[in-house]
From TrEMBL:
Enzyme class: transferase
Catalytic activity, EC: 2.6.1.44
One Pfam assignment: Aminotran_3
Alphabetical UniProt keywords: Aminotransferase, Pyridoxal phosphate, Transferase
Protein name: alanine--glyoxylate transaminase
UniProt family annotation: Belongs to the class-III pyridoxal-phosphate-dependent aminotransferase family.
Listed cofactors: pyridoxal 5'-phosphate
Organism annotation: Mesorhizobium waimense
Length: 439
């Protein structure tokens, strides 16, 4: 070409509105959990592109399914005709999510469009105009999904007119000094009782692990109790498992860690293994409600549906939820061990391969976002790819491919511990990261 690096050409050609960069990674290839960057260096990917590359890179089952669909059915969708992969995928997803009432599946392209559809369909179908959600939640990057999101990244956007935000149950930074979540539940019930609010709320959006808000795992039993509360008020529960579903949490669905089943389940990211597809499963009275129509030309296209079918069958055939559970435990234990002498690690938490490492100012619980940004930069230098998240931008997020091995987990823990240590010692300067805005 003209001698410019991919990074330089990227800066001059691609809009900054689509970038969330922490270091200058230029990917040229990938295989399994490894990425190859420009220049040939290999890195262990502990992000899997924020959870999307659920099977890792160049998985033969995924490659084959996509190539076959591309060769035979490119261009079709479910808008004005039907196709076998889309129907089969919908049937599979209905089987996956328990529930006795009549249900349907809606297929989309991203977590954003899926959540947006739910935020529109529920108020219209239930005639309840209000929506409850958690502060810190990232439900998407389109106007509608942003309007129900409580994450700071969506602060500039006008909120849904009926949105009620409540704090997320965070055992590390508990609401009302109650790590069990009882005070928060009482607060939510109080809001529902106020001036008939309970009858106006159509649904409650919940992430069973709050991912972009900080990989926060709620206290045991909290979501079941919240679900009971919603049921008492006739409020539908919506589980946004876009990042933490489909095997990643060590079970097929993250809600299976609790004794409850959501009314509506939203899936995305890892569902397509890298291709753009999302899905919503929910009651037909919502999903078939005629006035809430929501269509885009390529919804349910056979290429992405075939990719999703390959992902689901590989997760099942290769026991990847079980692998996520086992390797995730090793990863958490090893990180705890390798960082035990470090005073700047406040909390290590997670389920399966959805893990967060909270970085704090030494010996306190005060968030340390500067250390987090420098740690992920240093980790990239040392050969591991991970990013930071959280309402204080101080949590290292690990969402590696579900095929991660124990030896890769051990390397990951050592690398993360070393990166924290190096960044803490000042090996990464402000100048190194000044071009990368992060969140
Ligand atoms: N929901 C959750 C829980 C997410 O983490 C994200 C993306 N970070 C989204 C929705 C939006 O998904 P997408 O970027 O695929 O539109």
């Amino acid at each position: 070409m003209d001698g410019r690096t991919l990074q330089e050409r990227d800066r001059q050609a691609l809009s900054a509105l689509q970038k969330l960069r922490f270091f200058p990674l230029s990917v040229t290839a990938g295989a399994g959990c490894m990425l190859v960057e420009e220049g040939g260096r290999q890195l262990l990917d502990l992000s899997a592109a924020w959870g999307a590359a659920s099977l890792g890179y160049a998985h033969p089952a995924l490659n084959l399914a996509v190539a076959e669909a591309m060769a035979s059915q490119a261009g079709a969708s479910i808008l004005s005709s039907t196709n076998a992969p889309a129907v089969e995928l919908a049937e599979k997803l209905l089987d996956l999510v328990p529930g006795s009432d009549d249900r349907r599946v809606w297929l989309g392209h991203s977590g954003s469009d899926a959540n947006e559809m739910v935020a529109r369909a529920v108020p219209e179908a239930t005639r309840r105009p209000r929506i409850m959600a958690f502060s810190g939640a990232y439900h998407g990057g389109t106007l509608g999904s942003m309007s129900i999101s409580g994450h700071f990244a969506q602060e500039g956007v006008e909120k849904h007119r009926g949105l009620i935000l409540v704090p997320y149950p965070d055992p590390y930074r508990p609401f009302g000094d109650d790590p069990g979540g009882g005070a928060l539940l009482a607060h939510i019930e109080h809001l529902l009782q106020a001036e008939g609010t309970g009858e106006e709320v159509g649904c409650f959006f919940m992430e069973p692990i709050q991912s972009d808000g900080g990989m926060i795992v709620p206290p045991p039993g909290f979501l079941s109790r919240l679900s009971d509360l919603c049921r008492r008020y006739g409020i539908l529960t919506v589980c946004d498992e876009v990042k933490v579903g489909l095997g990643r949490p060590g079970r097929l669905n993250c809600f299976e860690h609790e004794d409850f089943t959501p009314d509506i389940l939203v899936l995305g990211k890892g569902l397509g293994g890298g291709l753009p597809i999302s899905a919503v499963a929910g009651p037909s009275r919502i999903m078939d409600h005629a006035r809430a129509y929501s269509m885009q030309t390529l919804h349910g296209n056979p290429i992405c549906a075939s990719a999703a079918l390959a992902v689901l069958s590989t997760i099942e055939a290769d026991g990847l939820a079980g692998n996520a559970d086992t390797v995730g435990r090793v990863l958490i234990e090893e990180i705890m061990r390798a960082t035990s002498s470090t005073e700047c690690v406040g909390d290590v938490r997670g389920r399966g391969l959805a893990i967060g490492v909270e970085l704090v100012k030494d010996g306190t619980s005060e968030p340390n976002p500067d250390l987090a940004r420098k740690t992920v930069f240093r980790a990239w230098q040392l050969g591991a790819v991970l990013y930071s998240v959280g309402m204080h931008s101080n949590v290292l997020e690990l969402t590696p491919p579900l095929i991660l091995t124990e030896s890769q987990a051990k390397f990951a823990a050592e690398t993360i511990a070393q990166a924290i240590k190096d960044a803490h010692m000042g090996l990464v300067g402000d100048d190194d990261i000044s071009d990368f805005t992060g969140w």
